[in-house]
Amino acid sequence: MIMKFIKKSSAKYCRSGLFLFFCCGCDLKNLIKPRWLQNIFSCSVFVVALLLIVVALPSCRFLPQKEGAREREQLPRITQKQAERKIVFEEPDIPEPQETVITGKEKMSVSSSAVKGRRPKVAIIIDDMGYHQQIGRRLLALDLNLTFSFLPGAPFTLKQENQAWEQGRDVMLHMPMEARSAVWNPGPGALYLKFSPEKIRAMVAKDLAAVPHAIGSNNHMGSRFTEDRAAMHEVLAVLKKRGLFFIDSYTTARSTGLDEARKMSIPAARRHVFLDNVQDREKICRQLDKLVALAEKKGWAIGIGHPHTATLNALGSCGRQLGGSVEVVGVHTLVR
Questions:
Q1: pLDDT digit string (tens) for 257-272?
Q2: Is the Cβ–Cβ distance between 303 and 273 less than 8 Å?
Q3: Which residue in 25, 38, 137, 145 has its CB near the most CB atoms, within 10 A?
Q4: Distance between CA atoms of 264 and 237, rounded to whole angstroms?
Q5: What does the pLDDT read at residue 61?
Q6: What is the rounded distance in angstroms from the CA atom of residue 269 to the CA atom of residue 192?
Q7: Which residues contact 290 (CB under 8 A, 6 or more apart)?
Q8: Cβ(254)–Cβ(269) below 8 Å
Q9: What pLDDT does 183 receive?
């Protein structure tokens, strides 16, 4: 306890404590008459003072410290679960599309579906896969035709994307892209606007290699990157060369992803509803209702969720009702 107190003391208290210790030691020494006891006491004071200096001085502010030492001391300790949450997160205030642009080809597809009496189609993409072992495993076990989008470099990506592929599920690359704010770190394998065109293409190829069964890709974050048409062109050029589709996660209303993909004749679509911006089971169920209502009106709709406990619970309960009104399909069937 004494050592902990000394370590936490400021330089002021360290200096004061050492000064008082020496003063008291000198006074007590004068009270001891035998010479040999004075010598023993002096040695004891010296040894204790030396120990105090060794323990106390490293924490004193008046001593120079190695660069970054104080910052490391101030870092809070976090649990493994907290670390996982810090690795993966979405950008705040993500807009919902106000209008969905429907091309002539899409209109024909919707009217054809209505004429033949087919059920509306819904695709549900689970983003951020690969970091959450238990929730990811339980999502894969759900009796729903979910689409799974995996982050490159995540510890469980290879294992889980292979499981999803073996189950016949659509597997995608969740491609990390630069966010508008530097606070939001998209993680390993991210694309940044400062990259050269060659580096962008090389990074996309590297990310795709991390998810070998990917048949398409969507963006992770990217509120800044997807607004740059030239940068998106480089990304989409790699996808086109490999015969992959693109889903615009639509993390900014000014995203050029879908429009550029259309111009390059790449199969593409855009997210309509984020299911779990609020991680509450009842609210996620209401978002699922919203997704179904949009599909009934439009003929099809795409929703995006994440590996949260609330999302898992909502899909496990409310998801069972989806089959009655809509057909849950792999997202590849909805790209145009």
A1: 999 999 999 999 999 9
A2: yes
A3: 145
A4: 8
A5: 37
A6: 23
A7: 273
A8: no
A9: 87
Q: Residue with structure tokens 């919203």? A: 290
In the block, tokens 């990217």 appear at: 222
User: What is the percent of the chain where pLDDT is above 70?
Assistant: 65
* Alpha-carbon distance values, 328 to 119, 157, 295 (Å): 10, 24, 11
Q: What is the rounded CA–CA span in Å between residue 295 and residue 20?
A: 78
Q: What is the mean pLDDT of residues 25-32?
A: 54
Sign for the CA dihedral angle at 106, 108, 109, 111 comes to: positive
Q: Angle at Cα 287 formed by Cα 281 and Cα 293, nearest 5°? A: 140
Length of the chain: 336
The count of other CB atoms within 10 Å of the CB of residue 143 is 10
**HSE-up (13 A, CA, CB side) for residue 82:** 4
Tell me the average pLDDT of the chain. 80
Whether 196 and 173 have beta carbons less than 8 Å apart is answered as no
Please give, one letter per residue, the 3-state secondary structure of the chain. Answer: CHHHHHHHCCHHHHHHHHHHHHHHHHHHHHHCCCHHHHHHHHHHHHHHHHHHHHHHHHHCCCCCCCCCHHHHHHCCCCCHHHHHHHHCCCCCCCCCCCCCCCCHHHHHHHHHHHHCCCCCEEEEEEEEECCCHHHHHHHHHCCCCCEEEECCCCCCHHHHHHHHHHCCCCEEEEEEECCCCCCCCCCCCCECCCCCHHHHHHHHHHHHHHCCCCCEEEEEECCCHHHCHHHHHHHHHHHHHCCCEEEECCCCCCCCHHHHHHHCCCCEEECCEECCCCCCHHHHHHHHHHHHHHHHHHCEEEEEECCCHHHHHHHHHHHHHHHHHCEECCHHHHCC
